[in-house]
């Protein structure tokens, strides 16, 4: 009997334990993991099939297609119940196929692909923003202070991620880096079973075939059709058209309420970024429910995708091609340390940007393949110099000083100021005129028109002193120098006009940070701390050309429906400033700029040219290397239509930049029939004081303030 009771007790205990185990499992299924299993169930039973919308095309001003789409294939990865070892193995096989077939994976981990490893935060504006981005990345990293510290170098961070993701096995360092890149992407994007991430775009048919053959062993990996961005003219207007890329975790958090998903593509730079809301379409959907017998039942009506709109630019493709080709050929022919530049062409009566180029450039269709090389190129080809390159204007600033002087009464129309070669107003700072520095000659008596023609430094030293820095700053602002132009590019940098306030910001020494009289003299000839963008210089020139109306710079002409071409939005001319300029003042300034082209520093470039042109050369001194070359011009002289600004880094002298302007005028007025691309020879540095050099180079060469020369307050 006791044995029977004992056996019964054992049975009761076993039954209790089994019941407890069942209850615990049910608790786990329903309470602890219930939400996860519900999501998985809903993913199986209530599947929303997303039909991606086609992105809108980008067109030039005449409707020619510049960017469009074609159907391609992408590789996606969704979350499964695979552990780290299995997941890493799946990713390894997938990555191997992708790279062995000549394709690349999406990789947003900001560490270089190859050793020696370094961080790859971009400094696209050249303003130190890469360090800010690096600090922000560390601050937002969820593994900070646990696995990662802000003082780690790139190699240590990569090693930390290798440990976090348990990436082990017989992988070489390059392959390991790629696996970590995919794991990082999945991690930061928060992928799930119903929300996959894109790990490769526009993959080849060879890759698609191999991946499908191994589909059973690559759990979570899928190949899907997608729209691929294509460029009708590879390498054309790269900095302006911009690019798209996989949405980042930050972008996704900001835009998820707008209907973006974690595997969406989004505009990253250029027009693709600025016009994202116009170009992006509305995705369509199809809802289905899978019942027990496998039958699919439609829950909702299909919603067709709505393609994005067409964005029509103000760009003239022929003029754009000419500007790009001339920039490259001119820079190459100058040689030596001249290796970069930019140019902008505007309609003086509307502010429309007809052409805008930056050199060096690159082929956007090969961006992924060439990224590492582009990143390591010391010339910074990914920087859009036309809107974010900052340059001293040199003597191209002198027409503005002349306008300010005449309008304020600081100088009269017929007043003459004597150039003695040396400006001796201050005892301890006596800068020279360029003609004195080169040949110990002087310009003698100069009125305002002659001073512009001869680019007489002494005249503008005196006029700048009379005006004072505050008035110079006021007029610079009126003409948009140091101000955003409004061009539809997020990459635009405002730059700055020299001022006492700005000097205090950039000069740490208290005594040296004071504003001296010599600072004003240098600002008056376009040196000192003034730094402007080529697009600002073009807008400034256009304002002079049209008599004083400064327009917002337009890069977009209109938005049109991709369905029927109907007009959705038109970007009309917008006046930013009406500069009060007397007619006689304007005539004197125009005459001075005409003389620069007819008889002055740009005459060798425009000798015998069939269209009259007004222009101004400039030479901006640098800390080392050859001077920068700047040229602004407008044409036709009597009834201006277009204005241009060209900057050549280390281009020696402004007349060299004038060659690019002539090529652009050839194309605009004659369809290229007068085209002189790569035919005229650059002016090299000649012996100082020769007649040819004096005629070809009436530009300032004074030492910039802050270079060690004593300045008087």
From TrEMBL:
Domain Penicillin-binding protein transpeptidase: 341-665
Signal peptide: none
SUPFAM superfamilies xref list: beta-lactamase/transpeptidase-like, Penicillin binding protein dimerisation domain
Family per similarity comment: Belongs to the transpeptidase family.
Key words, A-Z: Cell membrane, Cell shape, Cell wall biogenesis/degradation, Membrane, Peptidoglycan synthesis, Transmembrane, Transmembrane helix
A Pfam family of this chain: PBP_dimer
Keyword flag Protease: no
Regions that span the bilayer: 9-27
Ranges of residues in domain Penicillin-binding protein dimerisation: 52-296
Chief location bin: membrane
Subcellular compartments: Cell membrane; Membrane
Entry's Gene Ontology molecular function annotations: penicillin binding; peptidoglycan L,D-transpeptidase activity
Keyword Thylakoid: no
GO cellular component: a single term: plasma membrane
Taxonomic lineage of the native organism: Bacteria, Bacillati, Bacillota, Clostridia, Candidatus Ornithomonoglobus
Gene Ontology BP terms: cell wall organization; peptidoglycan biosynthetic process; regulation of cell shape
Stated name of the protein: Penicillin-binding protein 2
Membrane topology designation: Single-pass membrane protein
Region (Disordered): 680-713
